[in-house]
Design a protein that fits this description.
Layout: E1 2-7, H1 13-26, E2 29-34, H2 36-46, H3 50-54, E3 59-62, E4 80-85, H4 87-95, H5 101-111, E5 116-120, H6 127-138, E6 142-143, H7 157-171
Parallel strand pairs: 1-2, 1-4, 2-3, 4-5, 5-6
Length: 187
């Protein structure tokens, strides 16, 4: 499997970083794109450098590099994940504005009918956010808000993060053991 993983400047960069870790463990090829704002947030929230993230990826590209392979539909991937996905990035994609590599790669992913998974972490959503998400869903994107479940009885924050990363992998058809699946209720 070959994915594009983008991390944007929204709180919740732990989701993108954990996805990178799991992809690395599973041997999934990853092209990484980190926005300028995300570089700051990753350092603030996780005390990690972009170089540490790049070590988990197969390749890494600057957000400004519109000549990168992922800017073209002829570059074959199995999909793209933006985790977390800022409302700025979500709005740009919904509007067809491809001013940076993240929005361009997302646009290419949609036009090539490949899975595009967007993980918004904003709360609450305003009407513009919701309309942009609806527009992207109609265009084929998968909107996967960072809303973890609790039926698996999480004990640590990492359990909540793994649930979301597991759901991302689920929609991409990747086998994993990151969380306990629902087995029904026997009251």
């Amino acid at each position: 499997m070959h994915l594009i993983v983008a991390i944007t400047g929204s709180s919740g960069t732990v989701y993108g970083v954990r996805l990178l870790e799991i992809c690395h463990q599973l041997g999934i090829e990853v092209d990484l794109i980190v926005s300028k704002a995300a570089k700051i947030i990753v350092k603030l929230e996780l005390e990690k450098s972009v170089e540490e993230l790049q070590e988990l990826a197969t390749r890494s590209y600057s957000c400004e590099d519109l000549a990168a392979p992922s800017a073209s539909g002829s570059y074959r991937t199995d999909g793209m994940v933006i985790a977390p996905c800022s409302m700025k990035t979500l709005g740009a994609i919904a509007s067809g504005v491809t001013a940076d590599l993240i929005s361009r790669a997302a646009d290419v992913t949609l036009k090539q009918n490949r899975p595009l998974v967007l993980v918004p972490r904003e709360t609450p959503f305003n009407l513009i956010h919701l309309e942009n998400m609806a527009k992207l869903r109609r265009a084929g994107a998968i909107i996967l808000p960072a809303s973890p479940a609790f039926y698996h009885k999480p004990e640590k924050i990492s359990d909540l993060v793994d649930f979301i990363v597991g759901r991302i992998l689920d929609v991409l058809g990747v086998e994993h053991q990151l969380y306990q699946r629902w087995r029904g209720y026997k009251g």
